[in-house]
């Protein structure tokens, strides 16, 4: 018989993990990273791997711990890639840890990473978009403790594509990229 912890004993991380795990229909590997900024809590990384194919999805937890008194929607970050390389999951938590408090992670924000994320991919920057995972926001809204969290998604890009985003607009750029959105080895988009 499996005994589960009553909801009122669960931490915000546990409520978040429950909602995301229900969405993903898997249990995650949970990684944590000590905060680089004094007095801020750990950044957690919920990593979901597909056992059947090389696919990784990760959700951060730690960005929403800023300014708990604010009534503004809190944000967390996700990333999805057709790769089994853990670097894709780790980079999301790394960026949250390094940039929380300085970057709002709003839709359309560009983050220049300045180096390859993994050896087999030349993608070296990110654009932040609203989460494209179907029903992700709905699962968070169902939970009383997670309803104030908005999931944003990191889309890896080439630094050279930043001007294309400015010229086309974010929605048109993402539309053109749609078929290759999760491909770490995709070619540079030419317009």
Largest beta-sheet details: 7 strands, mixed
Give the integer mean of the pLDDT values: 90
**Largest sheet: spatial strand order:** 1-2-3-4-7-6-5
Beta content comes to 15-25%
Query: What letter string, H or E per element, gives the SSE order?
Result: HEEEEHEEHEHH
Tell me, briefly, the overall form: globular
Give the beta-strand count. 7
* CA radius of gyration: 17 Å
Which bin fits the share of residues in helices?
A: 25-40%
User: Span between N and C termini?
Assistant: 58 Å
Protein structure class: alpha+beta
Continuous helix count: 5
Keyword list:
seven-stranded mixed sheet; about 190 residues; globular; alpha+beta
Could you characterize what this model shows?
With 191 residues, this protein is α+β, with helices and mostly antiparallel strands. It contains five helices and seven strands; from the N terminus they run αββββαββαβαα. It has helices at residues 12-24, 87-99, 136-142, 162-168, 170-177; strands at 29-33, 43-49, 56-61, 74-81, 110-112, 125-130, 149-157. The protein has a seven-stranded mixed sheet, with helices on both faces. Helix 1 packs across helix 3 and helix 4 packs across helix 5 (170-177). It is globular and about 55 Å long. The N and C termini lie far apart (58 Å). The model has no long low-confidence stretch (mean pLDDT 90).
């Amino acid at each position: 018989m499996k005994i589960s912890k009553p909801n009122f004993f669960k931490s915000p991380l546990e409520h978040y993990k429950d909602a995301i795990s229900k969405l993903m229909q898997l249990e995650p590997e949970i990684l944590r990273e000590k905060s680089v900024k004094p007095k801020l809590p750990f950044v957690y990384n919920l990593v979901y791997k597909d056992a059947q194919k090389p696919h990784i999805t990760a959700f951060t937890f730690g960005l929403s711990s800023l300014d708990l008194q604010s009534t503004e929607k809190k944000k967390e970050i996700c990333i999805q890639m057709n790769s089994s390389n853990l670097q894709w999951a780790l980079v999301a938590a790394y960026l949250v840890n390094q940039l929380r408090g300085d970057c709002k992670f709003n839709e359309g924000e560009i983050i220049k990473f300045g180096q390859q994320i993994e050896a087999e991919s030349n993608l070296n920057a990110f654009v932040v978009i609203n989460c494209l995972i179907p029903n992700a926001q709905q699962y968070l809204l169902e939970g009383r403790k997670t309803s104030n969290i908005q999931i944003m998604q990191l889309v890896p890009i080439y630094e050279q594509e930043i001007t294309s985003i400015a010229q086309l607009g974010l929605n048109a750029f993402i539309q053109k990229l749609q078929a290759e959105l999760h491909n770490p080895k995709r070619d540079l988009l030419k317009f």
